[in-house]
Design goal:
The structure is a homodimer. Chain A is α+β, with helices and mostly antiparallel strands. Chain A has helices at about 5-15, 25-35, 65-70, 85-95, 110-115, 135-160, 170-180, 240-270, 280-290; strands at about 20-25, 45-50, 55-60, 75-80, 100-105, 120-125, 185, 190-195, 215-220, 220-225, 225, 230-235, 300-305, 310-315, 330, 335, 340-345, 345-350, 355-360, 370. In chain A, helix 6 (about 135-160) crosses helix 7 and helix 8 (about 240-270) packs antiparallel against helix 9. The longest helix of chain A has 28 residues, at about 240-270.
């Protein structure tokens, strides 16, 4: 989507939500609308305000020079001395006669809301969660490139890094450094879990040394702010019977979810009213694992990805999201057995007219090393 | 502070705020109370609930195993299927007869507040911003170690990395990789600015190659979750007269702020009622720079640091924070001249009985390279 299309999307939202302006606070929504990605994701450093006729960016002197150069289509409103963000916003609310102001309810903090409430009586909570869920072809290309980097680092780790005595932490470091050298970076802290540690879905890579059995690698790269995410579980040495069985079922569970979606995509061309519910894809994989006698997946089946590693759509039992063309998401079933180990297989897919296309290309059949 | 002391601090808060329970959502507050640092800082993955007699941690299956092992003094409440976080919280509100519930107002999102409001009529917004501002001696030691890593990487960059043709981005990468190899990591994306780029206080390191003039390096390391932060501005080649003048004034501005605080620390031993206001330290440096004929500093003079790079106390014109023994904060004046360049000198200090002690040890006098 071009910048102007994204802005038009917001202008349409003004009408739908019946507000005179929308205050955008999420740093990822700000990057989406401005292509500027240098604000902190952990602190409040900027807001955007979009009205029918104008768009503004609020920030402080640290970013003034950069914003002037890199975000010329938003008018810069500088917080400086007495002219705090709140004072500046109040002036614009008056100037544009904003009676009802929409706020980014999934991002704005309670304390910020309280302050803004003192200058604008009518605040409307708007869920902007889905504005980034359908990707433009340019965005998909960036995610594909990030996936390719993820594939490369996976191959590098398997071929050159895994060896007797290496620790989880060291492997996690190697993943980061490999991507750094390529001018990329990790999209999240890699999860490296050896042996029984793989039974903790979000294991914190530690000092455990490589041993016979499970090697779970969950990693992602960034390319021009877009993220990838992939999990592979391989075996150091030969997998035993139980390990092989778990692997097979997880892989089949992923295939169940993919066919569930694909068959609906094919049917939907005949009947446009057929909605493809994210929770039904989740159900297909989840029930298969339960039917095979294992515990339910202790996490969602999958999640959208883009500027954030986890964003809409969410493939979970409670999700109300509808899967649509242009969405990019993970499908990542897992079976985890405490004190034994676990298997997760995660790939990214893009929803296309004819079905899902896999973006992570690394082999996901059972790999035994040594 | 030991874990039990931190919990007692919260129990005291229950009385002061007149609430029956406090729901803690900030991932840094969670790390502070549990010493567990593996939850994402960008997504909601856990909450804590502290009441007079109990403490709970809410999370999902991805973290269940880890939380059981690593946070044994909090009872694990698992979100699973129908038992969502909200349902679980509702049950505990009933069980403990919580009439008034405090929430972490600087962290909780508007949409979360709305949901929690449906199960607890009386929510009280609590500002937990200052609970981590006074550091225990153990925490100060960790920050000191992080500062030492920052000093080491600065020396390494100056001695081994800066050379003709290298880009800002490459230097930023080298900073990251150096720390990785030491088992540490960056506490924030390093700012590397060459030449006129140094006039942008939060410049995004790019493809500019090293040239004669300003080299601004703003970097920090992490040690056991605690952060450091330091800025040095050095010169590639000889500094000219104007550059030298700016450097001198920035350095003197830092000294003004330090003596402002130190002289008050000395006086306060005679008169315990004397409060040391963070905004007065800011004023001392800021007014000195203006008096010398330059623009006011386009950012705060400094900030507290600990689990987060920026936390209370804030040394800014509007700050109401009071500086106290045990606080660790930066003092970082700067002068920035668009299209010419800028100088910032940032050091971390700990507030001790006898005055400020500098934790970042790198030389901060004018350094000319080559």
């Amino acid at each position: 989507m071009k910048s102007s299309q994204k802005i038009n999307h917001f202008k349409k939202l003004l009408g739908e939500e019946k507000v005179d302006g929308i205050l955008i606070s999420s740093v990822f929504n700000i990057t989406h609308l401005t292509s500027y990605a240098n604000f902190s994701s952990e602190e409040r450093e900027a807001y955007l305000l979009i009205t029918e006729k104008s768009r503004y960016i609020f920030t402080d002197g640290r970013y003034a020079e950069a914003v002037k150069k890199q975000i010329p289509d938003f008018e810069l409103i500088l917080s400086k001395g007495e002219n705090t963000f709140l004072k500046n916003l109040e002036a614009l609310i008056k100037k544009h006669n904003i009676k009802s102001l929409g706020v980014d309810e999934n991002d704005l903090r309670v304390s910020e809301h309280k302050k803004i409430k003192t200058i604008s009586k009518s605040l409307k909570h708007i869920d902007l969660g889905e504005i980034r869920s359908i990707k433009a072809s340019g965005e998909i290309k960036l995610i594909e490139t990030a996936c390719k980097l993820g594939d490369e680092v996976f191959t590098y780790i398997i071929r050159n890094v895994l060896k007797k005595g290496i620790t989880e932490k060291e492997v996690a470091s190697e993943i980061e450094m490999f991507l750094k050298k390529r001018g990329s970076e990790i999209s999240f802290k890699p999860i490296v879990a050896f042996g029984a540690n793989s039974s903790v879905p979000h294991h914190e890579s530690g000092n455990k040394k490589l041993e016979k059995g499970f090697v779970l690698l969950d990693l992602g790269a960034k390319f021009e702010n877009y993220c990838s995410d992939m999990t592979r579980t391989v075996f150091w040495g030969k997998a035993d019977k139980k390990q092989k069985k778990i692997y097979k079922i997880v892989k089949e569970a992923q295939e169940k979810a993919v066919s569930e979606i694909n068959s609906k995509i094919l049917r939907s061309t005949q009947n446009d009213n057929k909605k493809i519910l994210a929770n039904e894809a989740d159900k297909a994989a989840r029930e298969y694992i339960i039917k095979e006698g294992f515990e339910t997946i202790p996490h969602s089946l999958g999640h959208g990805i883009g500027l954030e590693v986890h964003e809409h759509p969410f493939l979970s039992p409670k999700s109300k999201d509808i899967l649509k063309e242009g969405m990019v998401f993970s499908i990542e079933p897992g079976i985890y057995i405490p004190d034994f180990g676990g298997v997760r297989i995660e790939d990214l897919f893009v929803f296309e007219k004819t079905g899902l296309r896999r973006l992570t290309k690394s082999d996901n059949s059972l790999i035994e090393l040594r």
